[in-house]
Please model this.
Amino acid sequence: MSIHPSSVISKDAEIGAGVVIGPFCVVKGKAKIGEGTILESHVSLGNEFGVVELGKNNIIASGAAVGGPPQDLSYKGEPTQLIIGDGNTIREFATLNCGTVKGGGITRVGNGGLIMSYAHVAHDCQIGDHCVIANSTQLAGHVIFEDHVKVSGMCAFNQFVRVGKHAFIAGDSAVNKDILPFTIAQGKYAVMRAPNSIGMERSGYTKEEVDAVKVAVRIITKGAGTIEEGIARIQNECAETPAIEYFIQFIRASVAGPRGLAI
Model:
Protein backbone atom coordinates (compact mmCIF):
# COMPACT_ATOMS: atom_id res chain seq x y z
CA MET A 1 0.00 0.00 0.00
CA SER A 2 1.23 3.47 -0.87
CA ILE A 3 -0.54 6.68 0.23
CA HIS A 4 0.89 10.07 -0.67
CA PRO A 5 1.23 12.30 2.42
CA SER A 6 -0.83 15.09 0.81
CA SER A 7 -3.93 12.88 0.55
CA VAL A 8 -6.67 12.83 3.19
CA ILE A 9 -8.12 9.41 4.06
CA SER A 10 -11.20 8.76 6.17
CA LYS A 11 -10.67 6.76 9.35
CA ASP A 12 -13.58 4.54 8.22
CA ALA A 13 -11.99 3.65 4.87
CA GLU A 14 -10.89 0.07 4.16
CA ILE A 15 -7.87 -0.10 1.87
CA GLY A 16 -6.65 -3.34 0.32
CA ALA A 17 -3.16 -4.62 -0.32
CA GLY A 18 -1.18 -2.96 -3.09
CA VAL A 19 -3.45 0.09 -3.34
CA VAL A 20 -1.75 3.27 -4.56
CA ILE A 21 -3.25 6.64 -3.62
CA GLY A 22 -1.46 9.51 -5.31
CA PRO A 23 -1.17 13.16 -4.27
CA PHE A 24 -4.08 15.37 -3.21
CA CYS A 25 -6.75 12.66 -3.14
CA VAL A 26 -9.65 12.76 -0.68
CA VAL A 27 -11.26 9.52 0.48
CA LYS A 28 -14.44 10.15 2.45
CA GLY A 29 -16.71 8.06 4.66
CA LYS A 30 -17.04 4.28 4.45
CA ALA A 31 -15.07 3.72 1.28
CA LYS A 32 -13.68 0.28 0.43
CA ILE A 33 -10.80 0.13 -2.03
CA GLY A 34 -9.90 -3.29 -3.41
CA GLU A 35 -6.35 -4.54 -3.77
CA GLY A 36 -4.25 -3.25 -6.61
CA THR A 37 -6.45 -0.23 -7.29
CA ILE A 38 -4.78 3.06 -8.19
CA LEU A 39 -6.07 6.58 -7.45
CA GLU A 40 -3.75 8.72 -9.54
CA SER A 41 -4.14 12.25 -8.10
CA HIS A 42 -6.81 14.78 -7.09
CA VAL A 43 -9.42 12.02 -6.89
CA SER A 44 -12.51 12.50 -4.72
CA LEU A 45 -13.83 9.14 -3.55
CA GLY A 46 -16.93 8.58 -1.41
CA ASN A 47 -19.14 10.85 0.68
CA GLU A 48 -20.12 11.36 4.29
CA PHE A 49 -23.38 9.39 4.06
CA GLY A 50 -23.06 6.52 1.62
CA VAL A 51 -20.80 3.54 1.01
CA VAL A 52 -18.50 3.29 -2.01
CA GLU A 53 -16.92 -0.06 -2.89
CA LEU A 54 -14.16 -0.41 -5.48
CA GLY A 55 -13.06 -3.88 -6.51
CA LYS A 56 -9.58 -4.99 -7.49
CA ASN A 57 -7.20 -3.43 -10.01
CA ASN A 58 -9.21 -0.36 -10.93
CA ILE A 59 -7.51 2.81 -12.20
CA ILE A 60 -9.09 6.14 -11.24
CA ALA A 61 -7.54 9.05 -13.13
CA SER A 62 -6.88 12.58 -11.96
CA GLY A 63 -9.84 14.72 -11.03
CA ALA A 64 -12.47 11.97 -11.09
CA ALA A 65 -15.28 12.27 -8.52
CA VAL A 66 -16.42 8.76 -7.64
CA GLY A 67 -19.23 8.09 -5.21
CA GLY A 68 -20.60 11.54 -4.54
CA PRO A 69 -24.16 11.88 -3.27
CA PRO A 70 -26.91 11.59 -5.89
CA GLN A 71 -27.97 14.73 -7.71
CA ASP A 72 -31.61 14.21 -6.77
CA LEU A 73 -33.78 16.58 -4.74
CA SER A 74 -35.39 13.66 -2.90
CA TYR A 75 -32.07 12.55 -1.41
CA LYS A 76 -31.84 13.31 2.32
CA GLY A 77 -28.52 11.75 3.27
CA GLU A 78 -29.60 8.11 3.32
CA PRO A 79 -26.74 5.53 3.36
CA THR A 80 -26.90 4.47 -0.29
CA GLN A 81 -24.14 2.86 -2.33
CA LEU A 82 -21.92 2.91 -5.39
CA ILE A 83 -20.44 -0.52 -6.15
CA ILE A 84 -17.74 -0.87 -8.81
CA GLY A 85 -16.28 -4.23 -9.85
CA ASP A 86 -12.77 -5.20 -10.94
CA GLY A 87 -10.46 -3.99 -13.67
CA ASN A 88 -12.21 -0.76 -14.63
CA THR A 89 -10.60 2.45 -15.84
CA ILE A 90 -12.29 5.73 -14.95
CA ARG A 91 -10.66 8.65 -16.69
CA GLU A 92 -10.15 12.33 -15.85
CA PHE A 93 -13.07 14.29 -14.38
CA ALA A 94 -15.63 11.53 -14.79
CA THR A 95 -18.38 11.60 -12.15
CA LEU A 96 -20.27 8.64 -10.67
CA ASN A 97 -22.95 9.05 -8.00
CA CYS A 98 -24.37 6.80 -5.30
CA GLY A 99 -27.95 5.54 -5.56
CA THR A 100 -31.19 6.73 -4.04
CA VAL A 101 -33.61 4.86 -1.80
CA LYS A 102 -36.40 5.13 -4.36
CA GLY A 103 -34.12 3.61 -7.03
CA GLY A 104 -33.01 0.62 -4.98
CA GLY A 105 -30.15 2.34 -3.22
CA ILE A 106 -27.28 1.15 -5.42
CA THR A 107 -25.50 2.50 -8.46
CA ARG A 108 -23.50 -0.35 -9.95
CA VAL A 109 -20.65 -0.70 -12.46
CA GLY A 110 -19.47 -4.17 -13.51
CA ASN A 111 -16.03 -5.43 -14.48
CA GLY A 112 -13.56 -4.49 -17.19
CA GLY A 113 -15.19 -1.22 -18.21
CA LEU A 114 -13.84 2.08 -19.49
CA ILE A 115 -15.51 5.35 -18.52
CA MET A 116 -13.77 8.20 -20.33
CA SER A 117 -13.18 11.82 -19.39
CA TYR A 118 -16.08 14.04 -18.32
CA ALA A 119 -18.62 11.21 -18.55
CA HIS A 120 -21.38 11.14 -15.93
CA VAL A 121 -23.06 8.06 -14.43
CA ALA A 122 -26.00 9.22 -12.32
CA HIS A 123 -27.78 7.68 -9.35
CA ASP A 124 -29.19 4.16 -9.62
CA CYS A 125 -27.61 3.39 -12.99
CA GLN A 126 -26.70 -0.24 -13.61
CA ILE A 127 -23.69 -0.70 -15.91
CA GLY A 128 -22.74 -4.23 -16.98
CA ASP A 129 -19.38 -5.82 -17.71
CA HIS A 130 -16.99 -4.61 -20.43
CA CYS A 131 -18.91 -1.46 -21.24
CA VAL A 132 -17.24 1.56 -22.83
CA ILE A 133 -18.63 5.05 -22.25
CA ALA A 134 -16.77 7.67 -24.26
CA ASN A 135 -15.94 11.27 -23.44
CA SER A 136 -18.63 13.68 -22.20
CA THR A 137 -21.44 11.13 -22.42
CA GLN A 138 -24.11 11.77 -19.80
CA LEU A 139 -26.34 9.15 -18.16
CA ALA A 140 -29.38 10.33 -16.21
CA GLY A 141 -30.69 8.32 -13.28
CA HIS A 142 -31.83 4.68 -13.50
CA VAL A 143 -30.22 3.95 -16.89
CA ILE A 144 -29.34 0.30 -17.55
CA PHE A 145 -26.48 -0.82 -19.79
CA GLU A 146 -26.22 -4.56 -20.22
CA ASP A 147 -22.84 -6.22 -20.91
CA HIS A 148 -20.57 -5.09 -23.77
CA VAL A 149 -22.42 -1.86 -24.55
CA LYS A 150 -20.26 0.64 -26.43
CA VAL A 151 -21.17 4.35 -26.45
CA SER A 152 -19.40 7.02 -28.49
CA GLY A 153 -18.71 10.54 -27.29
CA MET A 154 -21.14 13.28 -26.30
CA CYS A 155 -24.24 11.10 -26.05
CA ALA A 156 -27.12 11.73 -23.64
CA PHE A 157 -29.41 9.15 -22.05
CA ASN A 158 -32.81 9.89 -20.51
CA GLN A 159 -33.88 8.37 -17.20
CA PHE A 160 -34.91 4.69 -17.21
CA VAL A 161 -33.51 3.94 -20.67
CA ARG A 162 -32.28 0.37 -21.11
CA VAL A 163 -29.58 -0.64 -23.61
CA GLY A 164 -29.18 -4.31 -24.53
CA LYS A 165 -25.90 -6.17 -24.62
CA HIS A 166 -23.55 -5.68 -27.57
CA ALA A 167 -25.38 -2.54 -28.65
CA PHE A 168 -23.42 0.37 -30.12
CA ILE A 169 -24.50 4.01 -29.83
CA ALA A 170 -23.02 6.41 -32.38
CA GLY A 171 -21.58 9.73 -31.25
CA ASP A 172 -23.68 12.82 -30.49
CA SER A 173 -26.85 10.76 -30.06
CA ALA A 174 -29.69 11.52 -27.65
CA VAL A 175 -31.31 8.33 -26.41
CA ASN A 176 -34.81 8.51 -24.93
CA LYS A 177 -36.03 4.96 -25.62
CA ASP A 178 -34.68 1.44 -25.19
CA ILE A 179 -32.04 0.14 -27.59
CA LEU A 180 -32.27 -3.52 -28.57
CA PRO A 181 -29.29 -5.81 -28.07
CA PHE A 182 -26.99 -6.37 -31.04
CA THR A 183 -28.03 -3.13 -32.75
CA ILE A 184 -26.41 0.14 -33.81
CA ALA A 185 -28.38 3.26 -32.88
CA GLN A 186 -27.86 6.87 -33.89
CA GLY A 187 -29.66 10.20 -34.01
CA LYS A 188 -31.55 12.88 -32.10
CA TYR A 189 -33.55 11.13 -30.90
CA ALA A 190 -31.66 7.90 -31.58
CA VAL A 191 -33.26 5.07 -33.50
CA MET A 192 -31.91 1.62 -34.26
CA ARG A 193 -30.45 1.62 -37.75
CA ALA A 194 -28.62 -1.70 -38.27
CA PRO A 195 -27.41 -4.88 -36.58
CA ASN A 196 -24.05 -4.67 -34.84
CA SER A 197 -22.68 -7.60 -36.84
CA ILE A 198 -19.02 -6.71 -36.36
CA GLY A 199 -19.46 -6.40 -32.61
CA MET A 200 -21.12 -9.82 -32.47
CA GLU A 201 -18.41 -11.43 -34.59
CA ARG A 202 -15.66 -9.96 -32.43
CA SER A 203 -17.39 -11.35 -29.35
CA GLY A 204 -17.45 -14.87 -30.75
CA TYR A 205 -21.02 -15.28 -31.97
CA THR A 206 -21.41 -17.87 -34.72
CA LYS A 207 -22.35 -16.99 -38.29
CA GLU A 208 -25.75 -18.63 -37.71
CA GLU A 209 -26.40 -16.40 -34.70
CA VAL A 210 -25.27 -13.25 -36.51
CA ASP A 211 -27.37 -14.03 -39.58
CA ALA A 212 -30.44 -14.71 -37.44
CA VAL A 213 -30.03 -11.40 -35.59
CA LYS A 214 -29.64 -9.54 -38.89
CA VAL A 215 -33.05 -10.82 -39.99
CA ALA A 216 -34.63 -10.13 -36.60
CA VAL A 217 -33.36 -6.54 -36.49
CA ARG A 218 -34.62 -5.88 -40.01
CA ILE A 219 -38.06 -7.25 -39.11
CA ILE A 220 -38.40 -5.01 -36.04
CA THR A 221 -36.89 -1.83 -37.46
CA LYS A 222 -38.01 -1.99 -41.10
CA GLY A 223 -40.99 -4.33 -41.16
CA ALA A 224 -44.66 -3.39 -41.23
CA GLY A 225 -47.16 -4.52 -38.60
CA THR A 226 -47.26 -4.52 -34.83
CA ILE A 227 -44.50 -5.55 -32.45
CA GLU A 228 -46.29 -8.83 -31.72
CA GLU A 229 -46.55 -9.53 -35.43
CA GLY A 230 -42.85 -8.81 -35.71
CA ILE A 231 -42.07 -11.24 -32.89
CA ALA A 232 -44.16 -13.90 -34.64
CA ARG A 233 -42.19 -13.34 -37.85
CA ILE A 234 -38.89 -13.63 -35.97
CA GLN A 235 -40.00 -16.92 -34.45
CA ASN A 236 -41.01 -18.23 -37.86
CA GLU A 237 -38.12 -16.90 -39.96
CA CYS A 238 -35.08 -16.96 -37.66
CA ALA A 239 -33.12 -19.90 -36.36
CA GLU A 240 -33.79 -20.62 -32.70
CA THR A 241 -30.62 -19.49 -30.94
CA PRO A 242 -29.97 -18.14 -27.44
CA ALA A 243 -29.33 -14.72 -29.00
CA ILE A 244 -32.77 -14.70 -30.68
CA GLU A 245 -34.51 -15.86 -27.49
CA TYR A 246 -32.84 -13.05 -25.55
CA PHE A 247 -33.66 -10.56 -28.33
CA ILE A 248 -37.38 -11.43 -28.12
CA GLN A 249 -37.38 -11.27 -24.31
CA PHE A 250 -35.82 -7.81 -24.46
CA ILE A 251 -38.48 -6.61 -26.94
CA ARG A 252 -41.32 -7.76 -24.70
CA ALA A 253 -39.77 -6.21 -21.58
CA SER A 254 -39.26 -2.88 -23.37
CA VAL A 255 -42.79 -2.76 -24.74
CA ALA A 256 -44.08 -3.29 -21.20
CA GLY A 257 -41.57 -0.83 -19.69
CA PRO A 258 -41.54 2.93 -19.20
CA ARG A 259 -39.71 3.91 -22.38
CA GLY A 260 -40.57 1.61 -25.27
CA LEU A 261 -38.33 0.84 -28.24
CA ALA A 262 -36.28 3.34 -30.24
CA ILE A 263 -37.78 2.53 -33.65
